[in-house]
Amino acid sequence: MLLELNNIYKWVNSGGNRIFLLKDLNITVNEGEFISIMGPSGSGKTTLLNVIGMLDDFNEGVYNFMDESVHHLKDKNRSKLYKEYIGFVFQAYHLIDELTVYENIETPLLYRNYGRSERKALVSDMLDRFNIVGKKDLFPAQLSGGQQQLVGIARALVTNPKLILADEPTGNLNSKQGKEIMELFKELNEEGVTIIQVTHSEQNATYGSRIIELLDGRNVNKKIK
Fold this sequence. Notes:
The protein contains 7 helices and 10 strands. By secondary structure, it is of the alpha/beta class. The longest helix is centred in the last third of the chain and has 16 residues, at 175-190.
């Protein structure tokens, strides 16, 4: 088992009322799964992804990731766990405008104290894999949406994470680019990377082996292929 969420609650207080973003959520994810999270807007999909990715805290419940009790970890240790094992792919790419493609992909390696020659080898591998060697000195503004998303995925993968979290990874792409990204995720999953994606697309969801449906912060249904 890679991770387990038990009785997770997350809420915000508004005008004296408690508004639940996640409510009594229970999810187990095994290594090597490809899971799609679906549900209407406001159902808690991105919040759930951020909790799993340790970008967001929660108010009640138990979260175990690779036998570590995330809810008991200090911020520093939680950040270390996230950086070591999790890669995030955002819908809005979140590339750093002032950095080249090469430097954007290299950034996670700088946080983890890789030596210069090792960084160079790992980034070169990613540039090759994604067929963007010719773009390495360009800046994000000089790339198409599809190319920016490829760079975002390369950056998420460069540290060889156990888990990829993808929030609407094809949301800003045309159908051809979107299909290429989903085929890439399928390939990564077949290589053993666990993937959890948030998607509105029924078609993209079918790439997963399991669909988790959320409604008002609750897990309402599981479909398994």
